[in-house]
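Report of the visiting student (M.T.), summer placement. My assignment was to run the structure pipeline on a short list of targets and document each run. The first record concerns TetR/AcrR family transcriptional regulator.
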Amino acid sequence: MKAHDPAPLTEPAEDRRQRKARQTREALAAAAVGLVLERGLGAVTVEAIADRADVTRRTFSRHFGGKEDAALDFTRTDADRINAALRARPASEPPMLAYRRAVEQWLAEPSAPHRRPHMRALLAALDTEPALFAAYERLRVDAQDESVRIIADRLGTDRDQDLRPAVVVGAAAGVLTAALRQWARGGDGHDTDLADLVGQAYDALTGEAVLASAPHIATRE
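After the run finished, the structure tokens were exported:
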């Protein structure tokens, strides 16, 4: 195995109460995704989500603040996994490479979005559901903020004084977002592999960075 090859992310041990809470949350999230894709966000109520998951409205409120949060719970979970992988990357790796390897590790997991039903369709719905898109952006910004903290710690710098952590995360996370959106817009019948698309996107960023850093040679016609 190469040093940068993805390694499985290990899950912490759960007790019975934690397992039941996780299963309930997952059932609510799955119900929300299904209903949003069937009816559109505006026609979905919290009560309908709770009913489909066979729990009470009160139980829903213990897990989510609204229907958008429930439908996009995968975003929070995915971001947590990427950030966990980022924290575990070797300290010797440059920050941009560490983020890329963390994403590759996440994409190798069985729970990655391209291996989950309906994720492509849900991401595509961001283009037509403004409230869903706004909630997605809020979750994405929160996740990137944590990534900036992790990169700042890796560099041993103050994120409020040093632009590098925010620049690295803005670029690396932006590449991932662009690849995810392109993958989603391809539709379920499109055979593009998400991991391959993400790899191409990071290669494109690296290539542009090399070109931008090369000395500019002025030529005359």
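The radius of gyration is 20 Å. Residues 37 and 122 are 7 Å apart (CA to CA). I thank the supervising group for their guidance throughout the placement.
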